[in-house]
Design a protein that fits this description.
With 315 residues, the chain is an alpha/beta fold. The protein has one domain: Rossmann fold (3-Layer(aba) Sandwich). The chain is 52% helix and 12% strand. The chain has 14 helices and seven strands. It has helices spanning 3-8, 12-23, 27-36, 56-69, 88-96, 98-102, 120-132, 147-152, 171-177, 195-208, 230-243, 246-279, 281-291, 297-306; strands spanning 44-49, 74-80, 106-111, 137-141, 158-163, 184-187, 219-221. Strands 3-2-4-1-5-6-7 form a seven-stranded parallel sheet, with helices on both faces. Helix 2 crosses helix 3. It is globular and about 60 Å long. The termini are far apart. The structure holds guanosine-5'-triphosphate and magnesium ion.
Amino acid sequence: MGLVDNILKGDEKSAARLITRIENGDREAYRELSLLFPLTGKAHIIGVTGPAGAGKSTLIGQLALMFSGKGRSVGVIATDPTSLNGKGAFLGDRVRMKGAEERNVFIRSMAHRSHPGGIARAAAAAAYVMEGLGKDRIIVESIGAGQTDKDLFFLCDTVITVFTPEYGDEIQLFKAGLMEIGDIIVVNKSDTPGADDAAREILLASRRAARSNGWDVPVLPTDSRHGTGIDALVEAIEDHWERSDRKGRTQRKADNVEAFMVALLKEELWQEISERLTAARTFKEVAGEVRSGRMDPYNAVRKILDELEPKWTFR
Ligand SMILES: Nc1nc2c(ncn2[C@@H]2O[C@H](COP(=O)(O)OP(=O)(O)OP(=O)(O)O)[C@@H](O)[C@H]2O)c(=O)[nH]1
Ligand SMILES: [Mg+2]
């Protein structure tokens, strides 16, 4: 009996094993994934992004409980930047999501540092495996800063951006980056001072951000430590999913998976080419010229590519 058969029967141990093997870049595991992938594409994948410490993990714990209470089967992928501090954050997430774990929510934590090539690669595979396991709501946590985290959202059907009252004033800064990828905005820690003002500022800013698909981004206050506002948030998440017809959802998933493929391709190509490059004598010579200020980076790149076999063209 193969791993995939076990996963399709709902065996979490097999799912965990396959995710680990994919994280380790095991070729055999990719073959298992190829059997699984065609069976996926129906789960609602929900991304939760926002600045460090905004309460994403706590909120996800609440969402997971609420979804499972409604009879949904829930998976959580926590990509944890603070795991850089050691084991603390990983264990911390476990604690914050404890209630969720007891309710049969499948949780997988991934530390950023173990994925220098981009967390998206492992997270997407984990989502496919979780869907194979029968999860129909999969929640992905991310810090939402930097390209690798944007790549992560190639995976998500609905993206939630979490702010806190402290971000009310800095909204102009965040508008450009974080706000453009959110379908729903949460102002968490609504129990702390300034929450109403922050929510108002953020609502104004989000109204100014242009939307093409006719979806008005809701701005919702939550206190995720006490579970306040979670029901309204779940309603908005379901609404965002239901509101787009099947065709719209299929289209978004298709766009997402193609974009993800391109991201993977870039990563692989770069890895392949950088190994060849750094071994080449020209590269070392040219890098030396650039470092000492004798050659500018533009002409340096041209020179390196000119001498690379097979030929690559430089725009
Ligand atoms: N007052 C208050 N504190 C909260 C709320 N939600 C979370 N917290 C607290 O904020 C701290 C950070 O919460 P986390 O859930 O770990 O935040 P996070 O965004 O996942 O953090 P990182 O993953 O490290 O970026 C914890 O001490 C939580 O108890 C809330 O609604 N109100
Ligand atoms: Mg967290």
